Amino acid sequence: MSQFNDSQPIFVQIGERIADMILSKTTREGEALPSVRQISADLAVNPLTVTRAYQSLVDIGVVESRRGMGMFVAEGGHQRLLAHERQKFLTEEWPRVMARLAALDLDPTQLLKQGGKDE
């Protein structure tokens, strides 16, 4: 969990990693997430960067802060995150995928029928 790319701010990348933990159910609803200090030390980043990553997940109702206890996956957080990520995919990534398919003259219907099998 230490390499970052230059295409996105670090707090966004950290937020995505935390979101992946929730989506994969590595951390379940009601469970504690790693502390800001722990992530900050593990990744050698400023604690404010980690706080900002957590805040982005708090803002969409996926994570909750419990005073004096830390950050926890909110009840219903997995479903909210899943809905949020699906919407984000459909509005941000899917149009790029469709444009790339069109540029390569690939038929999405045929690709789905093929099911990933080589010809």
Structural description of this entry:
With 119 residues, the chain is mainly α. The chain has a single domain, classed as Winged helix-like DNA-binding domain superfamily/Winged helix DNA-binding domain (Arc Repressor Mutant, subunit A, Orthogonal Bundle). Helix content is 58%, strand content 7%. The protein has helices at 10-23, 36-43, 47-59, 77-103, 108-114; strands at 63-66, 70-73. Strands 1-2 form a two-stranded antiparallel ribbon. The protein is elongated. It starts with 9 loop residues before the first helix and ends in a 5-residue tail after the last helix. The mean pLDDT is 92.
Share of helix, binned: 55-70%
Percentage of residues in DSSP E strands: 5-15%
The low-confidence parts are none
Q: What spatial order of strands do you see in the largest sheet?
A: 1-2
Separation, N- and C-terminal Cα atoms = 37 Å
Structural class: mainly alpha
| Structural domain tally | 1
Shape: elongated
Count the DSSP helices: 5
The averaged pLDDT comes out at: 92
Output the CATH topology: Arc Repressor Mutant, subunit A
CATH class: Mainly Alpha
One letter per element, helices H and strands E, the order comes to HHHEEHH
The CATH architecture would be Orthogonal Bundle
